[in-house]
Amino acid sequence: DAGVIQSPRHEVTEMGQEVTLRCKPISGHDYLFWYRQTMMRGLELLIYFNNNVPIDDSGMPEDRFSAKMPNASFSTLKIQPSEPRDSAVYFCASSPGLRGYGYTFGSGTRLTVV
Amino acid sequence: QKEVEQNSGPLSVPEGAIASLNCTYSDRVSQSFFWYRQYSGKSPELIMSIYSNGDKEDGRFTAQLNKASQYVSLLIRDSQPSDSATYLCAVPGGYNKLIFGAGTRLAVHP
After folding, report:
1. CB-nearest partner of B43 from A91, A95, A99
2. Of B90, B56, B50, which is closest to residue A103 (Cα–Cα)?
3. What beta strand segments (E) does chain B contain?
4. How many residue pairs bridge chain A and chain B with CB atoms within 8 Å of each other?
5. CB neighbours (10 Å) of residue B58?
């Protein structure tokens, strides 16, 4: 099992540009989560999906952020337009949704907006 | 919004000592609790889960849960320099989503 795969690992972009982060969950995991981690705010849940359907997007900071899960093996988080305050590490995680399993995190994407 | 509180540290312990990490939570109905370890520059990794009051042991790690007092702790026996990391406590925040504490940074010195 390759685990949760995220790409790219690092992204540097200029303010105002569109950024797309990608995630491939573990096969068979019905839940997919997008988190953002900063020193100031720690790990924040942005949005999560169950069986490809968005369940809770209350953590999405504003309309500049959007997420999709077109199928069970792929999800994207898009920021348009990006701003310097979006600089953070973005983690994708997946879970089989059963008690006791917790989450498996991907390696993360370190985003820097200059 | 449920609250999860952890002392940010750093908690510094000598090699071979017991490291004690604590976490308090605000929601009395929480049923399951998780400890994650995160090395610098890496992603969080699940190391322990606990659901019942009392202790749960796994190798050098022991998780302790006290629902009446709303705290969960993680003990690391015979601490090693390789245990130096940030330890995150997580509790359910709703339907299969986890709320994470800010984490406690542990430093084990030789």
Report:
1. A91
2. B90
3. 4-6, 11-14, 19-25, 33-38, 45-50, 54-58, 61-66, 71-76, 85-94, 97-100, 104-109
4. 46
5. 11
Q: Quick check: B35 contacting A, CB < 8 Å? A: no
CA distance B53 to chain A (A): 15
Q: Contacts of residue A95 in chain B, CB cutoff 8 Å? A: 96
CB of A34 less than 8 A from some CB of B: no
For residue A58, is pLDDT > 70?
yes
- What Å distances lie between residue A61 and A45, A84, A85, B69, CA to CA? 10, 14, 11, 33
- Cβ pair B100:A43 closer than 8 A: yes
Tell me the chain A residues in contact with residue B34 when contact means C-beta distances shorter than 8 Å. Answer: 102
Instruction: Name the one residue in this structure whose structure tokens are 């796994």.
Output: B58
| Region A52-81 average pLDDT | 95
Confidence tier at B2 by pLDDT (50, 70, 90): low
Give residue A100's pLDDT band: very low, low, confident or very high (50, 70, 90). Answer: low
